[in-house]
Amino acid sequence: MNKRAITEQPIHPILAERWSPRAFSEQPVPDGVLGSLLEAARWAPSSRNEQPWRFVVVERQNVDAHTALTGVLSGNNRLWAGSAPLLLVAVAAAKNTRDASPNAYAWYDLGQAVAHLTFQASADGLVLHQMGGFDKTKARVVLALPDDYDPVAVIAIGYPGEVDALPAPLQEREKGVRTRRALAESVSYGSWGESRDS
Predict the structure, then answer these.
(1) Would you tell me which CATH number, out of the four given (3.40.50.720, 3.40.50.1980, 3.40.109.10, 3.40.190.10), belongs to the domain 13-162?
(2) For labelling, which of 95, 151, 156, 191 has a CA lying 20 to 30 Å from the CA of 72?
(3) What is the pLDDT of residues 107-126, one digit of tens each?
(4) How far is CA 15 from the centre of its chain?
């Protein structure tokens, strides 16, 4: 399904064509491709080179782990995410390694690492869907995360699947038009709320 963004300004085709589907093929993601995704994330910018991102990879062939992680997802996410061959949990290290002080940039840096991973996934013909809808307390237990590491998102990764395989209400959402607010509503110049023309 082509859901290329209608942009106000030209952007890279990989970014314009990226979207968050719910339909995944059963085709597994080869180890080398997974390695490239994780390597792309590894080279993201990082405040003070702390690299606070961590990832827990849960493959569908690891049935117990995959079922347990799918079980912590919320609402509709449970209906479709289990079909993805990979579930990747994005985790932020809450403290700096140098002095154990709180890392105020951990989530920001993790977001950059996931953005790099997303771009690489798109370049490799994969699709992914990032989810904040999950029980973080249960995820911490299921994944045996240490106290200083925060589960931030669960990311379903795989090759595009058939929309018709989804439950009917999700098919409609899948086929819906992609929208974003106007660029001018998100950007100020000089100070908050000021446009370039004012």
Answers:
(1) 3.40.109.10
(2) 95
(3) 999 999 999 999 999 999 99
(4) 14
